[in-house]
Write a sequence for this structure.
């Protein structure tokens, strides 16, 4: 095999770059896809709901809502009554006493569909005379048959039991509205009816949200309707108008009074005034209890809360959202949750890839999980339920996958180094192999000889350990360029070997990736010191030639300028004036336009020159030249023919009036005093104007006619302009 063929073989074997970031992204994508599939299958729902419950318990407790009072019927109350169900007469007395205290709403969280004597007629009378009373009914569902409301109550005074039980029997959702099959009108829930009665006094009534979603809006609060896949739910029953429950706290989060104390007048009326009063059973023997997110405990059985307190939580949630802007619980759309999981999977993969060891990565992974918990808990406090369990599993899964891959990488790295060492030692050119930390991991003998160092002294070291700092910086820069761009790069550098000799080298750098994804930078060197010396000699010779040529061109430009411009004023001289005038006439013939020629002579210049000296005269001519150039168009040509004679070529003018306007402008400009050499000089000018082709058909005649017109202007009193009197007959 020839040397060139072997070199090509090396490049084919080693030049297979792959972006390091892709490994992290691919790992996180794979783990995320698996977790999303598991999540959509519903296998994580129980864990996620348990995490939500734990977050509710971890968030700071809220102060009691004093707008709600619970009248509980406990075991002592039942013993005091001595009968169950409680007779209608005693219930009528309780309702009457509460109504006398003028609460905004009274909620009867007790099913009263059948009369319980004695006192049934008395209770019916109370029902008719207490308009702010709301009684509860139970609509038929999978939990049991329908229980109708008390008779003789208006529809607005009835609300259905609005709680929804999850698979673990906990209540995390409630229903605000429900539409029965035999009715076209939606019915209000028990808690919503009470909340609306309370809010009506503050002029807050149900509205349709202004964001075109059709959701219920009370005040500034929009009650987003629960959907089957919101949060961690998978294919949940989303019938009716459901919302997620945001409980205020554990049991006894509201002000409780007993039925006996109320009926015996031991509770001041101010306790109930302008409040929502809920009446319900709290006796353990009646088993009217429910489980919420606050019910679970790490040790022991769950702590249930009375059903009446659960309804108090719902009423408080509605009122607090409408009046206090207390957040409602909302969740992200599924694509956003998937991106959230992907982001944490990427964090787990990135930490593991960076630290390369599960042992060293564990503290960072724990910190990432802690950050996830803090962010999720903070989000829940603000009203957002975002996934926790899937991101945690994503961090762990990415870390495990990455750790397994790193172990495989390390084994493949060992094999790759052995293979590369065998290959590069067959190449006579100096070759080195670096890892991503810029350390030499494989070198051939030619490279060690080129540097003048033992092979063992170079392995696992970087250029900063061998070269001067400035040269090491250059090596590091180009090595990093190849690592970052993943593209082959070839450049020329210089370095100082161990003997202090500085050499010019050509380096070709490329990347190699083994089967496990390990990246190596491979550099092949060639000594080009002699070639660079020859190139520098050629460059010096070329530079000398270029400099000489530039000087000749500069001299030619200067000579050309001197030949065509007046040495005093820098204006075009007579020669260039004739050329420009011929060009203007040729262009005017093609465009069928006029050419104007102004012939200027300074009035009294000879006396100024004689009385003040030639230096002042020359300075005055320069000032006149500057003013003329400054008051004309860029396309006009101002020339000095000699002495105090100037000309102005006006190419492409539409009419003689345009030439007259220019002449008036020139006269006005020159009439302003000149300050020259400490003197203030007033000078006027006489101007003769000739037009092509009206006054002349060739250059000489055009100049002569302008000159004649100028003399005519002087004869007419100076400081004025005159047109040529010659008219050509076409």
């Amino acid at each position: 095999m020839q040397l060139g063929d072997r070199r090509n073989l090396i490049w084919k074997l080693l030049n297979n770059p792959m972006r390091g970031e892709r490994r992290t992204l691919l790992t996180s994508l794979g783990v995320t896809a698996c977790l999303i599939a598991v999540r959509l299958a519903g296998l994580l729902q129980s864990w996620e709901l348990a995490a939500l419950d734990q977050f509710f318990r971890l968030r700071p407790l809220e102060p009691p809502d004093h707008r709600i009072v619970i009248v509980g019927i406990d075991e002592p109350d039942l013993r005091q009554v001595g009968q169950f169900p409680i007779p209608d007469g005693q219930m009528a007395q309780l309702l009457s006493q509460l109504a006398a205290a003028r609460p905004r709403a009274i909620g009867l969280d007790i099913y009263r569909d059948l009369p319980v004597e004695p006192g049934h007629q008395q209770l019916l009378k109370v029902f008719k005379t207490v308009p702010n009373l709301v009684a509860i009914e139970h609509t038929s569902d999978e939990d049991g048959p329908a229980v109708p409301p008390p008779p003789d109550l208006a529809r607005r005074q009835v609300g259905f039991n609005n709680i929804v039980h999850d698979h673990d029997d906990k209540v995390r959702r409630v229903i605000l509205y429900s539409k029965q099959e035999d009715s076209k009108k939606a019915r209000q829930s028990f808690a919503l009816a009470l909340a609306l009665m309370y809010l009506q006094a503050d002029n807050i009534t149900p509205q349709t949200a202004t964001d075109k979603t059709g959701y219920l809006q009370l005040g500034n609060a929009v009650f987003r309707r629960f959907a089957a896949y919101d949060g961690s739910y998978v294919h949940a029953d989303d019938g009716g108008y459901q919302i997620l429950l945001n409980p205020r706290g554990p049991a006894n989060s509201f002000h409780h009074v007993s039925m006996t104390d109320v009926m015996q007048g031991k509770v001041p009326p101010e306790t109930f005034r302008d409040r929502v009063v809920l009446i319900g059973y709290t006796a353990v023997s009646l088993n009217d209890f429910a489980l919420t997110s606050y019910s679970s405990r790490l040790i022991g059985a769950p702590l249930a809360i009375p059903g009446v307190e659960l309804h108090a939580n719902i009423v408080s949630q509605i009122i607090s959202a409408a009046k206090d802007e207390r957040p409602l619980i909302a969740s992200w759309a599924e694509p956003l949750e998937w991106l959230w999981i992907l982001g944490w999977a990427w964090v787990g993969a990135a930490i593991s890839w960076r630290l390369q060891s599960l042992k060293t990565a564990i503290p960072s992974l724990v910190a990432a999980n802690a950050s996830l918990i803090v962010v999720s808990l903070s989000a829940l406090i603000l009203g957002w339920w975002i996934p926790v369990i899937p991101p945690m599993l994503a961090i762990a899964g990415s870390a495990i996958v990455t750790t397994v891959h790193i172990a495989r990488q390390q084994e493949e790295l060992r094999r790759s180094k052995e293979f590369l060492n065998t290959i590069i030692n067959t190449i006579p050119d100096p070759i080195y192999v670096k890892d991503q930390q810029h350390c030499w991991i494989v070198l051939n003998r030619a490279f060690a000889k080129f540097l003048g160092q033992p092979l063992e002294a170079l392995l696992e070291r970087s250029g900063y350990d061998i070269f001067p700092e400035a040269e090491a910086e250059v090596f590091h820069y180009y090595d990093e360029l190849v690592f970052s761009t993943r593209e082959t790069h070839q450049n020329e550098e210089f370095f100082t070997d161990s003997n202090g000799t500085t050499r010019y080298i050509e380096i070709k750098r490329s990347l190699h990736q083994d089967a496990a994804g390990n990246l190596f930078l491979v550099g092949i060197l060639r000594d080009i010191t002699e070639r660079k010396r020859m190139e520098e000699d050629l460059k010096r010779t070329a530079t000398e030639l270029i400099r000489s040529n530039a000087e000749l061109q500069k001299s030619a430009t200067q000579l050309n300028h001197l030949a065509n411009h007046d040495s005093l004023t820098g204006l075009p001289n007579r020669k260039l004036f004739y050329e420009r005038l011929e060009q203007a006439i040729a262009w005017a013939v093609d465009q069928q336009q006029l050419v104007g020629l102004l012939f200027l002579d300074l009035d009294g210049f000879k006396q100024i020159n004689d009385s003040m000296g030639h230096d002042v005269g020359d300075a005055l001519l320069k000032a006149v030249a500057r003013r003329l150039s400054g008051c004309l168009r860029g396309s006009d040509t101002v020339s000095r023919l000699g002495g105090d004679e100037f000309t102005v070529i006006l190419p492409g003018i539409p009419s003689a009036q345009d030439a007259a306007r220019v002449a008036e402008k020139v006269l006005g400009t020159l009439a302003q005093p000149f300050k020259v050499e400490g003197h203030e000089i007033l000078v006027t000018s006489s101007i003769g104007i000739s037009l092509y082709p009206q006054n002349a058909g060739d250059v000489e005649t055009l100049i002569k006619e302008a000159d004649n017109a100028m003399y005519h202007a002087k004869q007419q009193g100076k400081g004025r302009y005159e047109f040529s009197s010659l008219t050509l007959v076409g």
Summary: The CA atoms of residues 274 and 529 lie 97 Å apart. The domain at 428-527 is CATH 3.30.450.20 (Beta-Lactamase).
